[in-house]
Amino acid sequence: MAYSEKVIDHYENPRNVGGFDKNDPTVATGMVGAPACGDVMKLQLKIGPNGIIEDAKFKTYGCGSAIASSSLVTEWVKGKSIDEAVLIKNTHIAEELALPPVKIHCSILAEDAIKAAVADYKKKHSA
Ligand code: FES
Ligand code: FES
After folding, report:
1. Cβ–ligand 2 contact at 66 (below 6 Å)
2. Which of 22, 30, 33, 75 is deepest in the core (most CB within 10 A)?
3. SUPFAM superfamilies, alphabetically (predicted)?
4. Residue ID of nearest Cα to ligand 1 atom 3
5. If we measure between CA atoms, which residue out of 71, 68, 104 comes closest to residue 89?
6. 34 or 106: which carries more pLDDT confidence?
7. What is the mean pLDDT of residues 87-93?
8. In the CATH hierarchy, which fold is given to the domain comprising 5-122?
């Protein structure tokens, strides 16, 4: 299977690899797994008081498409509000990276990771 140039670029030069302290109240953590293949993605967002995502980092144990999808979303979410970030759809990711049908679930993992991180943030901040 041939990877698109964008996948290879993100795979070879992943953006924003790493993590933040999950106990920091401004940090949201989304950890999701793909039942189909066992790959795991951890996405962390650093969120300002106004709900704007100031920074994002990821660690992905998975295939090239999963790594590229998570790298891409760390770039996309920065500067967005959490309400805007949850509107990012796996179809946008798959289209940007030109993922073939068998790799669509890798982009779903990235969409799910954003939603999981935002849910974590809302849980942390619900009084
Ligand atoms: Fe093995 Fe995704 S199926 S890395
Ligand atoms: Fe399973 Fe990519 S996340 S093959």
Report:
1. yes
2. 30
3. SufE/NifU
4. 37
5. 104
6. 106
7. 98
8. Sufe protein. Chain: A (3.90.1010)
Is pLDDT at 127 greater than 70 in this prediction? no
Helix (H, G, I), strand (E, B) or coil at 9: helix
Please check the confidence at residue 1 and state whether its pLDDT lies above 70.
no
β 27-33/40-47 pair status: antiparallel
Sheet order of strands, 27-33 included:
27-33, 40-47, 53-61
Give tens-digit pLDDT for 14-70.
Answer: 999 999 999 999 999 999 998 878 999 999 999 999 999 999 999 999 999 999 999
pLDDT of residue 37: 86
Q: Is there a catalytic annotation at residue 63?
A: no
Q: Which of 106, 108, 116, 118 is catalytic?
A: 106
Give the per-residue SS3 of 72-95.
Answer: HHHHHHCCCEHHHHCCCCHHHHHH
Catalytic position from the list 5, 12, 18, 37:
37
